[in-house]
Amino acid sequence: MLRGDKCNLFLTSQGRLLGIRGGWVFALPDPDAGHKHSLRPLFAIQGDCVLHGGIHEASDGWIYFGEYFRNAERGPVRIWRIAPDLSQWEIAHEFAPGQARHVHGVYGDPFDPSAIWAAVGDEDGECYLYCTRDRFAHVDQFGDGTQLYRAVRLFFTPKHICWLTDSNLAQNYACRLSRQDGVLEVGQKVDNSCWYGATLSDGLMVAFTTVEEGPGILSNESQVLTSRDGFHWQEAYRFTKDRWRPMSLFKFGVISCAEGPMPPGELYISGEALQGLEGRSGILRWEESA
User: Distance between CA 231 and CA 235 in Å, rounded?
Assistant: First the structure.
């Protein structure tokens, strides 16, 4: 009833299965190798797990993720990296106390394979994008700390880094950052905050808005939005929030999706606290109009 459990599973390019649950990172057994009951805890982190889609495998096979937790005291926050065979792990980067509340996600850049991007938040003064091209030895910061740079899912095009803002505090927008000069462009308004999304194999970008609490939440419906450029979005579908309150106990209205390659016109999604999509998974299918 309280929808209190969550975990992450990440399949590496080497076929290794990484899990994060209850504040621990695990190496999961490989049934094909005969290890059916050898769940192996690796190390503890701050927070239960990470946000969906926020784990990235770099070109060298190392796996990156950032800590996501309440962090009311604003202590240090870490980005971790794990070796391809899951035998080693280390802190790739640490944000100083007060620098960020938590990490929303770590992402690879399909148009710049050497680049790794990270998005952090939440309050004003904490919302930035970070980019590294040398395994976090040097990090470039983008943004002014405001809610316009409060991003979870990033979308990539040849000329821009794009996102829909994740703010329960202020009006939400479609935004994009120029690769050439770092200038921010603010586009259309969005009714609610945006947490999750995906880019399909044909380049179509899909994003989901969330029903949570706050002055930045203007709708009781979670939208499925689509875009070809990461900046101009249109609604494909919507789900209405269920009646259970308070949301602090019974969960926000959230849509998430599976990771990995997705065929054109098809996307596996899951939902929480939404009518018709409560504790369920399904397939969204659509055809784009000419």
Answer: 13
